[in-house]
Write a sequence for this structure.
């Protein structure tokens, strides 16, 4: 499910959870556990990458459709993953090897540097198409990462983009050919790892301060409302219909 290796001072976290690296409660907690392990290790940076043609297809909607009890278990796990990723005090590089949808796009946007492959996958936040609102931290990550003028379009349309279009909108920083992905990710990881660790961590915290302040002031209120909507009968019915129409078709 999660493969962790080391290349010099760089940790490589490879996601291999089914065909799509769909985010369920167990996978989210496993990823968060691994990132916390990296934080306390001697590694000076981490590269996060998917397997095959998918970085992550986002939330496992089949599991969500199980009902409200699972959703109440899942949402804190999803928050924990985004918190561990976005606030990791060490450099994190997302090597976006293919599709990065919804929560998978958010996970990529938690990284300090995002590198996508040209012609191998689409990137976007499709929550509106499913009918669920963003958890508070997920939305703040997108507000932080994306170019402000494109955020309404991306959020409300649920559109997905090829790598060069995603770069234009701020979802990724660099676009490379597939064969170059890990080499470029390693270059970026080593570049950031060479910076003084304490200085990097303090500067990253300063860069993220507005997100931290917003979460402190509004996060609990927003997430309370988000949970109400995600667990409502209407939303769960919509999700089941979406699953039947898209994921289970054919």
């Amino acid at each position: 499910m999660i493969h962790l290796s080391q290349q010099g001072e760089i940790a490589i976290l490879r996601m291999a959870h089914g065909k799509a690296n769909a985010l369920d409660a167990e996978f989210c907690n496993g990823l968060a556990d691994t990132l916390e392990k990296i934080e306390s290790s001697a590694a000076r940076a981490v590269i996060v990458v998917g397997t095959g043609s998918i970085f992550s297809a986002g939330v496992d909607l089949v599991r969500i459709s199980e009902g409200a009890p699972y959703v109440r278990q899942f949402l804190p796990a999803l928050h924990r993953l985004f918190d561990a990723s976005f606030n990791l005090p060490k450099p994190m590089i997302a090597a976006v090897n293919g599709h990065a949808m919804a929560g998978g796009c958010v996970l990529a946007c938690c990284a300090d540097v995002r590198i996508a492959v040209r012609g191998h996958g689409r990137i976007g936040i499709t929550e509106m198409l499913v009918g669920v609102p963003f958890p508070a931290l997920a939305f703040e990550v997108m507000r932080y990462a994306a170019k402000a003028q494109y955020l309404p379009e991306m959020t409300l349309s649920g559109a997905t983009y090829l790598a060069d279009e995603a770069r234009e909108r701020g979802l990724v920083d660099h676009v490379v050919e597939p064969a170059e992905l890990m080499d470029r990710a390693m270059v970026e990881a080593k570049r950031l790892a060479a910076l003084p660790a304490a200085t990097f961590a303090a500067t990253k915290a300063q860069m993220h301060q507005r997100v931290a302040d917003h979460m402190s002031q509004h996060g609990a209120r927003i997430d309370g409302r988000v949970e109400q909507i995600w667990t409502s009968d209407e939303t769960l019915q919509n999700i089941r219909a979406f699953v039947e129409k898209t994921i289970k078709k054919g």
